[in-house]
Amino acid sequence: MIKLIECPRDAMQGRAEFIDTAIKAAYIDQLMRVGFDTIDFGSFVSPKAIPQMRDTAEVLSLLDMFKSRSKLLAIVANTRGAEDALQFEEIDYLGFPLSVSETFQQRNTNKSIAEALKTVEEIQNKCEVNGRTLVTYLSMGFGNPYGDPYSPDLVAEFVGKLSDLDIKVISFADTIGSATSDLISSLYSINASAYPEIEFGLHLHTHPDQLKDKVVSAYEAGCRRFDGALKGFGGCPMAKDELIGNVATENLIQILEEVGEKLELDKEQLTEAMKLANVVFS
């Protein structure tokens, strides 16, 4: 079964102008009516680092959870953020960005990779105690611009360490749009066969004209978890000065339907969500 993860948090987080809390909540509410498996709706991180997300708890209090089957995911960057997120029963998933690049790990979370792995273990333990699931994003999962070491074997080492911690969901994140179709296929094929107990996802930042080949490559290699953001808004503000856009969810839906997937989405609600996206991100 295909799992579509809609990421308004990723679409919003890099915008300089603060989006009103009520508008954020109304937009996420609309997304929850579409039928996405999960909504990556906010983050519990330092407001100095990501000021756009300083109202995540308030946004959550405004959501109408009774009209949706979508689950909620919040990004955290440290144990304290995880503890804050775990106070809210409405949140099903915590997401942590673990980087294959030492430079980016420092830029993104102010930690070394070794320190970040310890944090992953701490958060995983807290998730297990509280009945939640930790999603670990392997950022710079397809290469990095900093000259740090990278190889598919290195990624596999990270997956092995996460497997040892009993992490059940890992999403390969192409933070800067460097993935190729062949590399995507290779990473998924190798890791999915080696770790059948892990659900592997794909979080792309890519140019639209390269999207179809990359998504089909991941799909054919067994990937069934895909992240997107309506209209392709957003990108990672910590990666580079120039943002690489997110996958436009509407394009992702079209590609998956073309390969024969029947997605259980309310298309009327999706149309309304796309209209609202134009307003939110105008």
UniProtKB/TrEMBL annotation:
GO BP term (any one): L-leucine catabolic process
One Pfam family, short name: HMGL-like
Describe the location of the Pyruvate carboxyltransferase domain by residue ranges: 1-271
Q: Which InterPro entries match?
A: HMGL, PYR_CT
Presence of the UniProt keyword Metal-binding in the record = yes
Q: Which GO terms describe its molecular function?
A: hydroxymethylglutaryl-CoA lyase activity; metal ion binding
**Which UniProt keywords are listed?**
Lyase, Metal-binding
Give a yes or no for keyword Zinc in this entry: no
Q: Which domain of life is it from?
A: Bacteria
- PANTHER family the UniProt entry points to: HYDROXYMETHYLGLUTARYL-COA LYASE
Name listed for the protein in its UniProt record: Hydroxymethylglutaryl-CoA lyase
